[in-house]
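W.,

You were right to be curious about this one. When I first looked at the sequence I had no strong expectations either way, so I just let the prediction run and decided to look at it fresh. Below is the sequence, 237 residues in total, followed by the output.
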Amino acid sequence: MDGVQISLGSFLDYMRSTPRGCAGIVRDQREIYLDETSMAWAFYGPFRLALRRAVTSPDATEIVAAAVRQARPVQQPHFQELHAGFQRWWGRAKAVGVPMTSARWNIGGLAVTISDRSSLALRRQDGRTEVVLPYLKEPELGTDSASLALRLLEHAMPALRPGATPMVLDVRRGKPLRLRKNANRVELDALLAAEAAKYLAHWTAVVGAPAPSTASSDVGFRPRLVPEIPLPRVGGI
Protein backbone atom coordinates (compact mmCIF):
# COMPACT_ATOMS: atom_id res chain seq x y z
CA MET A 1 0.00 0.00 0.00
CA ASP A 2 1.09 3.59 -0.59
CA GLY A 3 0.47 4.71 2.96
CA VAL A 4 -1.81 4.45 5.95
CA GLN A 5 -5.18 6.20 5.96
CA ILE A 6 -7.51 6.88 8.88
CA SER A 7 -10.57 9.07 9.34
CA LEU A 8 -10.35 12.05 11.66
CA GLY A 9 -12.97 10.49 13.93
CA SER A 10 -10.95 7.31 14.34
CA PHE A 11 -7.74 9.29 14.78
CA LEU A 12 -9.44 11.27 17.54
CA ASP A 13 -10.43 7.98 19.20
CA TYR A 14 -6.81 6.86 18.94
CA MET A 15 -5.40 10.08 20.43
CA ARG A 16 -7.71 9.94 23.44
CA SER A 17 -7.38 6.21 24.07
CA THR A 18 -5.34 4.09 26.49
CA PRO A 19 -2.40 2.01 25.16
CA ARG A 20 -4.57 -1.11 25.08
CA GLY A 21 -7.35 0.84 23.39
CA CYS A 22 -4.91 2.16 20.79
CA ALA A 23 -3.97 -1.39 19.84
CA GLY A 24 -7.64 -2.28 19.40
CA ILE A 25 -8.25 0.75 17.21
CA VAL A 26 -5.31 -0.13 14.95
CA ARG A 27 -6.56 -3.72 14.64
CA ASP A 28 -10.01 -2.42 13.69
CA GLN A 29 -8.49 -0.13 11.07
CA ARG A 30 -6.60 -3.07 9.61
CA GLU A 31 -9.84 -5.07 9.38
CA ILE A 32 -11.61 -2.25 7.57
CA TYR A 33 -8.63 -1.59 5.31
CA LEU A 34 -8.46 -5.26 4.21
CA ASP A 35 -12.22 -5.70 3.89
CA GLU A 36 -14.22 -2.78 2.51
CA THR A 37 -17.45 -4.69 3.29
CA SER A 38 -16.57 -4.81 7.00
CA MET A 39 -19.32 -3.47 9.23
CA ALA A 40 -16.92 -2.41 12.00
CA TRP A 41 -17.42 1.23 11.00
CA ALA A 42 -21.20 1.11 10.57
CA PHE A 43 -22.59 1.20 14.13
CA TYR A 44 -23.14 4.98 14.11
CA GLY A 45 -23.64 5.22 10.35
CA PRO A 46 -27.43 5.74 10.44
CA PHE A 47 -27.10 8.45 13.07
CA ARG A 48 -24.40 10.27 11.12
CA LEU A 49 -26.64 10.20 8.07
CA ALA A 50 -29.56 11.56 10.11
CA LEU A 51 -27.40 14.43 11.40
CA ARG A 52 -26.39 15.45 7.88
CA ARG A 53 -30.03 15.44 6.77
CA ALA A 54 -31.29 17.14 9.92
CA VAL A 55 -29.17 20.28 9.71
CA THR A 56 -30.59 21.10 6.27
CA SER A 57 -34.22 20.32 7.21
CA PRO A 58 -36.91 22.47 8.86
CA ASP A 59 -37.86 19.38 10.89
CA ALA A 60 -34.43 18.41 12.22
CA THR A 61 -35.63 16.81 15.44
CA GLU A 62 -38.04 14.45 13.67
CA ILE A 63 -35.35 13.27 11.25
CA VAL A 64 -33.07 12.34 14.15
CA ALA A 65 -35.98 10.80 16.07
CA ALA A 66 -36.72 8.59 13.05
CA ALA A 67 -33.15 7.28 13.17
CA VAL A 68 -33.73 6.32 16.80
CA ARG A 69 -36.97 4.49 16.00
CA GLN A 70 -35.32 2.56 13.17
CA ALA A 71 -32.23 1.62 15.20
CA ARG A 72 -31.44 -1.99 16.05
CA PRO A 73 -31.88 -2.94 19.75
CA VAL A 74 -28.13 -2.75 20.38
CA GLN A 75 -28.08 0.78 18.92
CA GLN A 76 -31.22 2.06 20.66
CA PRO A 77 -29.79 3.29 24.01
CA HIS A 78 -26.88 5.02 22.26
CA PHE A 79 -29.07 6.67 19.65
CA GLN A 80 -31.50 7.83 22.34
CA GLU A 81 -28.69 9.56 24.23
CA LEU A 82 -27.41 11.12 21.02
CA HIS A 83 -30.89 12.33 20.11
CA ALA A 84 -31.36 13.99 23.52
CA GLY A 85 -27.98 15.72 23.26
CA PHE A 86 -28.67 16.83 19.70
CA GLN A 87 -31.98 18.38 20.73
CA ARG A 88 -30.31 20.38 23.52
CA TRP A 89 -27.65 21.70 21.16
CA TRP A 90 -29.76 22.28 18.06
CA GLY A 91 -32.34 24.26 20.00
CA ARG A 92 -29.77 26.98 20.63
CA ALA A 93 -27.52 26.54 17.57
CA LYS A 94 -29.49 28.89 15.27
CA ALA A 95 -27.76 27.52 12.18
CA VAL A 96 -28.43 25.78 8.88
CA GLY A 97 -26.40 23.21 6.99
CA VAL A 98 -24.31 24.32 4.00
CA PRO A 99 -22.05 22.39 1.59
CA MET A 100 -18.48 21.38 2.38
CA THR A 101 -15.78 19.38 0.61
CA SER A 102 -13.86 16.34 1.80
CA ALA A 103 -10.09 16.62 2.31
CA ARG A 104 -7.08 14.74 3.58
CA TRP A 105 -4.25 15.96 5.81
CA ASN A 106 -0.91 14.24 5.36
CA ILE A 107 2.14 13.95 7.56
CA GLY A 108 4.79 11.40 6.73
CA GLY A 109 2.95 8.28 5.64
CA LEU A 110 -0.30 8.99 7.52
CA ALA A 111 -3.30 10.44 5.71
CA VAL A 112 -6.09 11.71 7.98
CA THR A 113 -9.37 12.04 6.10
CA ILE A 114 -12.12 14.54 6.83
CA SER A 115 -15.20 13.42 4.93
CA ASP A 116 -18.35 15.35 4.10
CA ARG A 117 -20.17 12.12 5.00
CA SER A 118 -19.06 12.28 8.64
CA SER A 119 -18.73 16.04 9.18
CA LEU A 120 -21.09 19.00 8.86
CA ALA A 121 -20.82 22.58 7.70
CA LEU A 122 -23.12 25.18 9.28
CA ARG A 123 -23.95 28.82 8.61
CA ARG A 124 -25.04 30.78 11.66
CA GLN A 125 -27.51 33.64 11.69
CA ASP A 126 -24.71 36.22 11.78
CA GLY A 127 -23.18 34.73 8.61
CA ARG A 128 -20.28 32.90 10.29
CA THR A 129 -19.63 29.37 9.05
CA GLU A 130 -18.28 26.37 10.94
CA VAL A 131 -17.15 22.90 9.97
CA VAL A 132 -18.30 20.49 12.67
CA LEU A 133 -16.91 17.08 13.57
CA PRO A 134 -19.64 15.22 15.54
CA TYR A 135 -18.22 13.09 18.36
CA LEU A 136 -20.69 10.29 19.03
CA LYS A 137 -18.95 7.98 21.49
CA GLU A 138 -20.01 7.32 25.09
CA PRO A 139 -17.02 8.67 27.10
CA GLU A 140 -17.03 12.44 27.49
CA LEU A 141 -14.58 14.17 25.16
CA GLY A 142 -11.87 16.11 26.97
CA THR A 143 -10.66 19.53 25.92
CA ASP A 144 -7.11 18.37 25.22
CA SER A 145 -8.18 15.68 22.77
CA ALA A 146 -10.73 17.97 21.13
CA SER A 147 -8.07 20.65 20.65
CA LEU A 148 -5.95 18.27 18.57
CA ALA A 149 -8.89 17.51 16.27
CA LEU A 150 -9.76 21.20 16.09
CA ARG A 151 -6.23 22.13 15.10
CA LEU A 152 -6.22 19.49 12.39
CA LEU A 153 -9.54 20.82 11.08
CA GLU A 154 -8.05 24.32 11.15
CA HIS A 155 -5.18 23.17 8.93
CA ALA A 156 -7.59 21.52 6.50
CA MET A 157 -10.13 24.36 6.40
CA PRO A 158 -8.97 25.94 3.11
CA ALA A 159 -9.97 22.68 1.41
CA LEU A 160 -13.02 21.86 3.55
CA ARG A 161 -14.79 25.23 3.43
CA PRO A 162 -12.66 28.36 3.05
CA GLY A 163 -13.27 30.97 5.74
CA ALA A 164 -15.02 28.61 8.15
CA THR A 165 -13.86 27.87 11.69
CA PRO A 166 -13.70 24.39 13.29
CA MET A 167 -15.93 22.94 15.96
CA VAL A 168 -16.13 19.51 17.56
CA LEU A 169 -19.59 18.61 18.88
CA ASP A 170 -19.85 16.15 21.78
CA VAL A 171 -23.31 15.11 20.64
CA ARG A 172 -24.43 13.08 23.69
CA ARG A 173 -23.84 16.04 25.95
CA GLY A 174 -24.91 18.66 23.40
CA LYS A 175 -21.57 20.36 24.01
CA PRO A 176 -19.75 22.35 21.31
CA LEU A 177 -15.95 22.55 21.68
CA ARG A 178 -13.94 25.26 19.94
CA LEU A 179 -10.27 26.16 19.86
CA ARG A 180 -9.36 28.96 22.27
CA LYS A 181 -8.05 32.15 20.68
CA ASN A 182 -4.88 31.90 22.76
CA ALA A 183 -4.34 28.18 22.08
CA ASN A 184 -0.66 27.28 21.66
CA ARG A 185 -0.82 26.14 18.04
CA VAL A 186 2.91 25.36 17.85
CA GLU A 187 2.49 22.91 20.72
CA LEU A 188 -0.64 21.40 19.18
CA ASP A 189 1.19 20.90 15.88
CA ALA A 190 4.02 19.12 17.67
CA LEU A 191 1.54 16.88 19.48
CA LEU A 192 -0.22 16.04 16.23
CA ALA A 193 3.07 15.14 14.57
CA ALA A 194 3.95 12.90 17.52
CA GLU A 195 0.54 11.18 17.47
CA ALA A 196 0.85 10.54 13.72
CA ALA A 197 4.30 9.01 14.16
CA LYS A 198 3.01 6.89 17.05
CA TYR A 199 0.10 5.64 14.97
CA LEU A 200 2.41 4.61 12.13
CA ALA A 201 4.67 2.77 14.56
CA HIS A 202 1.63 1.09 16.12
CA TRP A 203 0.32 0.11 12.69
CA THR A 204 3.68 -1.51 11.89
CA ALA A 205 3.69 -3.43 15.17
CA VAL A 206 0.09 -4.65 14.85
CA VAL A 207 -0.12 -5.21 11.12
CA GLY A 208 3.45 -6.38 10.59
CA ALA A 209 4.05 -4.33 7.44
CA PRO A 210 6.87 -1.81 7.02
CA ALA A 211 5.80 1.69 8.00
CA PRO A 212 6.05 4.33 5.27
CA SER A 213 9.12 6.52 5.59
CA THR A 214 8.57 9.72 7.57
CA ALA A 215 11.60 11.38 5.99
CA SER A 216 9.34 13.45 3.77
CA SER A 217 7.47 15.06 6.68
CA ASP A 218 7.59 18.83 6.40
CA VAL A 219 10.00 20.44 8.83
CA GLY A 220 8.13 22.63 11.30
CA PHE A 221 4.98 20.57 10.68
CA ARG A 222 3.47 22.18 7.63
CA PRO A 223 0.66 19.74 6.77
CA ARG A 224 0.11 19.06 3.09
CA LEU A 225 -3.40 18.81 1.70
CA VAL A 226 -3.89 16.67 -1.40
CA PRO A 227 -6.94 16.30 -3.64
CA GLU A 228 -9.41 13.58 -2.76
CA ILE A 229 -8.78 10.40 -4.75
CA PRO A 230 -10.50 7.02 -4.40
CA LEU A 231 -8.75 5.06 -1.66
CA PRO A 232 -9.86 2.17 0.55
CA ARG A 233 -12.03 3.56 3.34
CA VAL A 234 -10.58 3.32 6.82
CA GLY A 235 -12.76 4.01 9.81
CA GLY A 236 -15.51 6.43 10.61
CA ILE A 237 -16.43 8.69 13.47
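Here's what jumped out at me. Residues 210-237 have pLDDT under 50 and may be disordered. And, maybe more interesting for your project: The first strand starts at residue 4 and ends at 7.

Coffee later to discuss?

I.
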